[in-house]
Design a protein that fits this description.
The protein is an alpha/beta fold and about 220 residues long. Helices cover about 50% and strands about 20% of the residues. Bound molecules: 2'-deoxycytidine-5'-monophosphate. 2'-deoxycytidine-5'-monophosphate binds next to helix 2, helix 4 and helix 8.
Length: about 220
């Protein structure tokens, strides 16, 4: 079973996907973390974004690993734990930038499909921007989450502050709007609701309420 959860940043995708994965015994694949890992490696290795060959080599041999350690989802690049380092505002913007490059998207497409298909669990829940439209157009259930700019920026702000990252709310609001504009307006696999996805506006709903709505949709469709 494949469940696709798409939406802009701060719509609650990852929090909700983790809860649904736990409830339904599915593996959780955070596809944004894959693009963030590419951004991290691009910066670390000083790769030029115009160097298609270098990007292709990087993406096709990206040593990314997801591990669930002591109840926390961790992301490793080789042996390096990059779980926190990829969450900074700088990495958010760079991930959005690299994700618009055709060579990056085509190189990562198969990896996402393989990660989902090789799970030992009952299936996978993937969150991202193009899961229902491009990565798994045949997913059993597709959800498209939205929330107002203010709600999304507030969630991002609180998430970063809780991790000890010093940020200013107005800057986060501006960055959230700019990043989502970039993700929605790119030519390739833009953030978009699949025609058969169910739209959930999360404004005014708590996590539990969104989770229950998704579980109901999955039950109806599987
Ligand atoms: O979900 P996130 O905020 O961690 O994602 C970081 C960036 O990665 C996002 O701004 C756009 C890109 N992304 C994408 O293009 N396609 C996906 N399926 C997931 C993320």
């Amino acid at each position: 079973m494949i469940i696709a959860i798409d939406g802009a940043s701060g719509t609650g995708k990852s929090t909700i996907s983790k809860l649904v994965a736990k409830e339904l015994d599915l593996s959780y694949i955070d596809t944004g973390a894959i693009y963030r890992s590419v951004a991290f490696a691009v910066k670390k290795d000083a790769i030029d974004l115009n160097d298609e060959q270098a990007l292709k080599v990087l993406c096709s041999s990206l040593p990314i690993k997801f591990e669930f350690i002591d109840g926390v989802n961790k992301v490793f690049l080789g042996e390096l734990d990059i779980s926190e380092a990829i969450r900074t505002p700088e990495m958010s913007m760079l991930a959005s930038k690299v994700s618009a490059l055709p060579i990056v998207r085509s190189s990562l497409l198969e990896m996402q499909r393989r990660l989902a298909k090789t799970t030992s669990k009952k299936g996978a829940i993937l969150d991202g921007r193009d899961i229902g439209t491009v990565v798994f157009p045949d997913a059993e259930a597709k959800i498209f989450l939205t929330a107002s700019d203010a709600t999304r920026a507030k969630r991002r702000y609180e998430e970063l502050v809780s991790k000890g990252i010093t940020v200013d709310y107005d800057t986060i609001l501006k960055e959230t709007i700019a990043r989502d504009k970039q993700d929605s307006q790119r030519t390739l696999a833009p953030l978009k609701k699949a025609s058969d996805a169910v739209h959930i506006d999360t404004d005014g709903l708590n996590i539990e309420q969104v989770k229950e709505k998704i579980l109901k949709i999955v039950k109806e469709r599987t």
